[in-house]
Amino acid sequence: MRFCWRCGERLHAPPPTTCAACGQEHFHNPLPCGGAIVVRDRRVLLLRRANEPYRAMWDTPGGFCNGDEHPMHAAERELAEEAGIEGRATAYVGTWLDRYGEPAADGLQLHSLISFYLVTLSEPQAEPVPDGTEITEAGWFDLSALPADLAFPRHTVPVLRAVREMLDGAAGPLPDRTW
After folding, report:
1. Which terminus of the chain has fewer Cβ atoms in its 10 Å neighbourhood, N or C?
2. Rounded to the nearest 5 degrees, what angle is found at the Cα of 162, between the Cα atoms of 65 and 99?
3. Residue 91 and residue 58: Cα distance in Å, rounded?
4. 144 pLDDT exceeds 90?
5. Distance between CA atoms of 98 and 89, rounded to whole angstroms?
6. Cβ of 74: how many Cβ atoms within 10 Å?
7. How does DSSP classify residue 123?
8. Which of 117, 1, 125 is nearest to 62 (CA)?
9. How far is residue 158's CA from residue 175's CA, in Å, rounded to a whole number?
10. 3-state SS, residue 100
11. From residue 136, how far is each of 24, 57, 59, 74 by CA, in Å?
């Protein structure tokens, strides 16, 4: 069941709908997220998820934005929370729209709008330490040989392809560069 956030009455349908009691409109908008892409020596940091959706699959660090948080800051925060390493977003990669999990019992499907950023680590050689709650394992994967079990493949595959293409077009040598 879903209820109106303004008056508390039960909604007659999942969003988008209008509360029959007070007239408050309820929308079904995608949830904003920030994603961190950390690349070292053409290898990308991926984290193994501890929870659904896509439990036990590899994912980029990231997650939902807090109420007034910019996706760039969410990417930096989530990297620190999930992998225990600090970094600063230095380049915008792009934004992808995707489904999040399975539809609810009433058919409402959550969607996420994920903005990805290349992140430069504060300590370039820092190694991730999974939090054990959301993340069980961390690994560095060659951008040309990614694992087959990627979480959220509808956005993870194209964003990592875009990063690879960005790096292939970058001027100068990349081996000693940490993004």
Report:
1. N
2. 45
3. 22
4. yes
5. 22
6. 24
7. S
8. 117
9. 23
10. strand
11. 42, 10, 11, 20
- Please report where in the chains the tokens 């950390």 appear, as a residue: 38
pLDDT (tens digit, 9 = 90+) per residue, 62-88?
A: 999 999 999 999 999 999 999 999 999
Structure tokens at 155: 């956005």
Amino acid present at 38: V
Average pLDDT, the chain: 93
| pLDDT tens column, 7-43 | 999 999 999 999 999 999 999 999 999 999 999 999 9
Written in H, E and C, the secondary structure of 33-97 is: EEEEECEECCEEEEEEECCCCCCCCEECCEEECCCCCCHHHHHHHHHHHHHCCCEEEEEEEEEEE
Residue 153: which H helix or E strand, with range? helix 153-168
Angle at 2 between CA 51 and CA 134, to 5 degrees: 10
pLDDT of 1 reads 72
- Per-residue pLDDT at 107: 87
When pLDDT is cut at 50, 70 and 90, the band that residue 175 belongs to is very low
For residues 33 and 142, give the distance between their C-alpha atoms in angstroms, rounded to a whole number.
Answer: 25
